[in-house]
Each structure stands twice: as C-alpha cells, then as structure tokens.
Amino acid sequence: MTAHTTLSAERFEADRPRLRAVAHRMLGSLGEADDAVQETWLRASRADVGDVANVSGWLTTVAGRVCLNMLRSRGRRHETPLDAWSADAAGAAAAPAEGGDPEEEALLADAVGVALLVVLDTLAPAERLTFVLHDLFSVPFDDIAPLIERTPAATRQLAGRARRRVRGGDAPAVDRVRQREVVDAFLAATRGGDFEALVALLHPDVILTADRFVIPTPGPVAVSGARPVAEGAMAATGRARFTGPALLDGTVGLVMAPHGRLRLVLVFTFAEDGITAIDVVADRERLAGIEMAVLDAAATDAPALDD
Fold it and tell me: For residue 254, what are the contacts with CB-CB under 8 A and spacing of at least 6?
C-alpha cells in the first residue's frame, strides 16, 4: 500500500506568486485572486501528490480549474452610474469593493495592463482560461483540454479565437505612436494633477461629451473649451488610477476598469494642434459596439506580480 504524499506549505508558498498571477489575470480582481489561491491551497493540501512529476504545472491547472468555476458562477454584475466629474464618485470607483488593497490593485492593473484585463473580461470562461494558461503562462494544450472538457485540437482553436479578440483585427493605418504619446501624457497629467500640462494637450475649442450613464442626468452632457474640460478631468484624478490605454476601434483611447471590470472609455479625436474631442462612454450598448484590443503585443506578457 503506497503512503499518501501531501504537499508541504513551504512547497506551495514557492508557487504562490505564479498562482496569484494566474488568478489575477483570470479574475481581474486582486481580492478574488487571493480567494482563488487560498482555495487552490485547500484542494492541493488534501490531494495525493506522490505521482505528480511537475508540481508547479499541476498547481497551475488546479488554480485554473478554481478560477474557471468562479467565472462560471458569476452572476450579473450590479452596475452603478459613475459621476465622471465628482471627486467623491471617483474615490468610490477606486474603493476596494471586492477586497484587496486599492493601491496594490492599481499598481497591478498598471503592470498587467488595464486593456488586457478589460478584453479578457469579454471572453467566455473557457476562452479566458485557455488564453491565460497557454499564451501567458505556457501551459500545454494537452493539460488545459481536460479542464474545459475538449480535445487538445479544439482547445488550440479556442486559444486562437481568444488571441484574435485580445489583439484585435486589422486596424486602419494611423499614427498610433503619436496618439499613444498624447494619451499617455493625458493620463499622466490627470493622475498627477498637472492642470497646465493637461490644458497644453487640448485644442482650445475641444469638446467633451459624456453620456447619461457617465453622469446621472436625463441626457448627455457637453463641455467645451480646454480649461473647463481640464477642470473636469482633474476631478477624476482618483479614478485615473484604474485607467489605461487601449485600442478603441483602432484608435488609441483610455479604458477605466476598477477590479478589471470595464466601467467606461474615453474616445479621443486627434489633430495636429491637440485633442479636439473626447467622448466619454459608459452606456453598455455603446460599449458593446466598440472593438477593444490590447495596444501592445508586449502587454500580453506575464510579468511577476511583485516586480
């Protein structure tokens, strides 16, 4: 009779950073990721690992299964309107409603890429699992297939479909380098509260529009002029911590996604003399009609969470 071989806590801790990284990309929320890692430990500590040749790989698949179950059990999320120009609402949007340290959550969103978390959140659970495990963490399709009850060949096809969604289709030829520079500068100025730097990025006659789901009003709101628009952006400094660049219908814009959940986007119109228009979109139907993709292929890499 073969003795039952259990996994030591020390051995599990050696893999915790990797498992946390997997769970964070699967679930988008740091609080949920930590819950998933804890559940992974509970399952792993009760299992017999005597015949497990690759403990790290096995733990990754266990974590993947836990995350897949969590994704499938998610109900409809309660969406609340966000007042784009209220400091209190911006702070509420950044609050750790789903657990976790908001500062760490914001840092991880930056490290992983807000756009990647947003696009991953649009994938079906099986697509998300396949893309994260294979493309981001190099888990073989043969190991992923049993988790989603598909053949390795079907799993490979699923990953390819998810990959196309993440990276987007063929986009129009535009000066994305310049757009990215302007959008990065806009985000940096907003986060840093640099009012004059923000004004310098805007056309004097810039027009900002926000739909009624951004600001709880009967209809959309419009603000014109560089300084009034910049003043509004300054009121959303707290919310900017969970905002990052993305491709929106082939043009560089910004997505805001606390805990990896899309709340709104900023669609820019660019000209030689600055940003001429900003459309702030929170309407679910309008958001569904915008093709979102990760801006840089490098953003689909998997940096360590504690880098």
Answer: 183, 186, 187, 243, 244, 245, 246, 265, 266, 268
In this structure, the dihedral spanned by the alpha carbons of residues 24, 29, 30 and 34, taken in order and rounded to 10 degrees, is -70
Mean pLDDT of 134-152: 93
Longest dimension (CA), the chain: 81
pLDDT for residue 99: 53
pLDDT tens profile 68-95: 999 988 754 433 333 433 333 334 333 4
Q: Mean pLDDT over residues 203-231, rounded?
A: 88
pTM of the model: 0.73
Tokens of 204: 């004097």
* 8 A C-beta contact, residue 297 and residue 167: yes
Residues 226-240 have pLDDT tens digits of 999 999 888 877 778
Q: What is the 3-state secondary structure (H, E, C) of the chain?
A: CCCCCCCCHHHHHHHHHHHHHHHHHHHCCHHHHHHHHHHHHHHHHHCCCCCCCCHHHHHHHHHHHHHHHHHHHCCCCCCCCCCCCCHHHHHHHHCCCCCCCHHHHHHHHHHHCHHHHHHHHCCCHHHHHHHHHHHHCCCCHHHHHHHHCCCHHHHHHHHHHHHHHHHCCCCCCCCHHHHHHHHHHHHHHHHHCCHHHHHHHEEEEEEEEECCCCCCCCCCEEEECHHHHHHHHHCCCCHHHHEEEEEECCEEEEEECHHHCCCEEEEEEEECCEEEEEEEECCHHHHHCCCEECCCHHHHCCCCCCC
Separation between Cα atoms, residue 131 and residue 125, nearest integer Å = 10
